[in-house]
């Protein structure tokens, strides 16, 4: 009998719609800023309006209200900082700092042998901590988590940091789109490849941890 194909990491983690939604408010900020002759107020207004529309759409789609509030709050926080400092590039400070925090958290999780990719996937699959009792899965999740540390969060920190430091507002808006849903898709694909390459050929897959005996 033919063995069933392994479930891909992309299938477990779901689609890219949330990441695409997250790229819209920064794009709206830059568009409003440029159209209104570099007016931070217009940029902020455009970003907040788009964030609210996206938030309402997410609620209608059935997403949790807390996630929507956090998303809108992040946009509002960036808007407040930009208005406070008078520097349009500061709208992206929260996004920069959140990626610094994410890179550090994911790296630390690997060091303490609680790789966050395993935590996320294990939670989505309803496994709680059973995956940690499988040495092959623990090792594979640890290796694959480095793709998220280096290929997503660290890359964003370097690009966003350099553009923010040099005041490249338009480039920050473009980078916020390019390094959101396309990068997320590439990271999921890359980490999935590393994950399954690290598993033995006879391993039953993510949904079936094999505890150490």
Automatic annotation (TrEMBL):
| InterPro entries for the chain | UCP010219
Q: Which domain of life is it from?
A: Bacteria
Which parts pass through the membrane? 42-60, 67-83, 103-125, 146-165, 171-196
| Pfam families according to UniProt | DUF3159 (PF11361)
What does the UniProt keyword field contain?
Membrane, Transmembrane, Transmembrane helix
The name of this protein is DUF3159 domain-containing protein
- The scientific name of the source species is Amycolatopsis suaedae
